Please model this.
Amino acid sequence: MKKILCIIIMAITALTVSAEQEEKKFNPQQFQRDQESFITKEAKLTPQEAAAFFPLFRELQKQQRALFSQQRRLERQRPGNDKDAAKIITDMDEIEMETAKLRALYHKKFCKAISPMKVKACIRAEEKFKHKMMDRIARAPRPRTDNRR
Model:
């Protein structure tokens, strides 16, 4: 009887843990909705301002993701010599400069779509959202990866 009860408890625990892990998987669409909602509230965007701002904001993020992806590939490379390492560093620097130029270009586009005061508020809200997400990730319980029993 104790064995059956233990098996049932273990099965329920396993199902609960599995369901919790499913809930915690990253959902890009939900992240985008949460981010846009947060920015809209923090920057006090009207529906018209949000409609003008977010299509440009999503364009910027898409282009930034492509640059960040290139940068991650470079960071993972293991150079065999100083020449290769120098090339990787130069390429990473170029990507950082391209990212800064891209942000500046889009900041100008944002200022044409909504007021510069609202753009500044949106930039601040995006940073605040990033920090909020990083705090959430830092506080999230980590699954055990060791094989101890």
Remarks:
- The mean pLDDT is 87.
- The chain is about 85% helix and 0% strand.
- The radius of gyration is 22 Å.
- Residues 37 and 119 are 15 Å apart (CA to CA).
